[in-house]
Design goal:
Order of helices and strands: HEEHEEEEEHEEEEE
CATH class: Alpha Beta
Distance between the termini: 45 Å
Shape: globular
Structural class: alpha+beta
Protein name: Uma2 family endonuclease
Low-confidence stretches: 1-10
CATH topology: tt1808, chain A
Helix content: 25-40%
Oligomer: single chain
Strand content: 25-35%
Number of strands: 12
CATH architecture: Alpha-Beta Complex
GO molecular function: endonuclease activity
Keywords: Endonuclease, Hydrolase, Nuclease
InterPro entries: Nuclease_put_TT1808, Restrct_endonuc-II-like, Uma2
Organism: Streptomyces mooreae
Length: 195
Amino acid sequence: MTIAPDDARRGTHLYQVMKEFVQSTDDTLPGKFEITKEGIVLDMMSPVKPHELTALRLRKRLEKVMPEELVAHTGEPDVENEPEGILRRPDVMVIAEADMEGDGSFDPHTLIAAIEIVSRSNPDNDWVSKMRDYPLLGIPTYVIFDPREGEGAVLSDIHSTPDGPRYATRKDFVYGEDVTIGEWTISTDGLPRYA
């Protein structure tokens, strides 16, 4: 689809308005706001122990097997592609420590992998929206851990489709199996489930 210059300016303006709103709500409203192709998404989940414990255990396990210059980051800033109008904050980001330097959002092309732990309140955000947005951002590997069912999926190999970039390869796993994220294999033993 071709966008005329006036439409492009309106799209950029709308994205900037949404971004300013999201930034103004940091630490003032519950939940986590992100910007997708459809608009602003609010994940109302407040951090629950199984979610946060999963992120911690994944971070520690990955950092044991990755080279020292790589990190499994579990915080801010966001990952942003302004031309696409997308602002996301993965639960865990595999990235080179050197690519974390400087100001502003992370460049999505510097991420090696994005990892999400599915929330109880909005599972479609991880299983549908992010499955669409992350290949569009160029993130080579997207991993979903779902504490609701004790299962997940590793998505990789971005390819073009009529609906835009998508992951071509999906490897499902259940908790208790080893999972390979990029070049590194970790255990999923002992990951908590939602009660």
